[in-house]
Amino acid sequence: MITDFGVLRPNPATEELELAALYPGVSAEAARAATGWPLELAESIEVVPPPASAELAVLRDLHARTEAAHTRSVHITLPS
Length: 80
Prior knowledge:
31% of the residues lie in helices and 24% in strands. It is α+β, with helices and mostly antiparallel strands. Strands 1-2-3 form a 3-stranded mixed beta sheet. It is extended, with a radius of gyration of 18 Å. 8% of the residues are buried.
């Protein structure tokens, strides 16, 4: 599961989600504070590498197109 703080994965033994990876600059304490349950930590927590410039360009373009799509009215015509 991808979150704003990192990545949660099921623990193989318990199947409970645990913090397995963090984004650069994010602490495990911040991730725990934002979670609605006592978040367990994986034995080894990875750091997710920052996105490359090409990946950022794609994400920014997607965000702009999504935002533009949400500003247009939607007209639905139901069959009679």
